[in-house]
Automatic annotation (TrEMBL):
It is a multi-pass membrane protein. Its main location: membrane. It comes from the Bacteria. Keywords: Hydrolase, Membrane, Transmembrane, Transmembrane helix. PANTHER family: PRESENILIN-ASSOCIATED RHOMBOID-LIKE PROTEIN, MITOCHONDRIAL, RHOMBOID PROTEASE. This is Rhomboid-related membrane protein. Residues 89-238 form the Peptidase S54 rhomboid domain. Pfam families: Rhomboid. GO terms for molecular function: serine-type endopeptidase activity. The chain crosses the membrane at residues 16-38, 89-114, 126-146, 152-172, 179-205, 217-240. It comes from Syntrophotalea carbinolica (strain DSM 2380 / NBRC 103641 / GraBd1). GO terms for cellular component: membrane. It is found in: Membrane.
Amino acid sequence: MFLPYGDTPNPRSTAYINWLLIGLNIAVFVGVTMPLMFARVDLSDPLLLDYLRSYGVRGLVSPQDVLQQVSAYDLFVFRYGFRPAAPSVVSLFSCMFLHGGWMHLAGNMLFLYIFGNNVEVRLGSLGYLLIYLVSGVAATLFFAVFVPGSQIPLVGASGAISGVLGCYFLWFPRNRVKTFIFLFPFLMTTVMLPARLVLGFYLILDNLLPFMLNGGGGAGVAHGAHIGGFLGGLGLAYGIDRCSWLRRFGW
């Protein structure tokens, strides 16, 4: 297991938007996700039938079976997660702030914590927020291109965060990433790795290869969204470097 947990050098100024995004994602999980995970689904919700059909349920289903298998959060995600077969502008943005569990949230927030501050200081608060949101939209749309008929909702901040990683890859080539290596029982150590090596590993081995092996689809991890977000952020960073008029705004 390879786990990044920090980078160097770090900016001296505080990345307020980065902390705000981390706090907002955690707040949504604690205030919305967790209560709904333990709440019963509303059997009168008209969206429930579409939800059951999307997961292959056909014919009559007893209310008891539904209550045992479906939580209020499942239906909430079905409504506000991004479904390529039923896209909406609201879900295009709301899906970025929903997570499927603590591990999903923790992994995303760790990467945002490590790589987001340098990018925000480089761009400024407003520019960073725009890059984050635009990358998230690009990631979601890239994912949807390969599964246009899917009713399975996409959730998570990883697409937007991948855009931040793309910016970091271009702008901070000399930075190094503190990485914990755990290969029990043979090896357990901490090393400093070049940022581009870590991010290249993330893009190619963690996402591009699984994406290609699964034919662009796959279940569980939205590799397409990660790739789309990373390429989107990389392209935006490259474009910013080439647009001299943006320098007037401190970019």
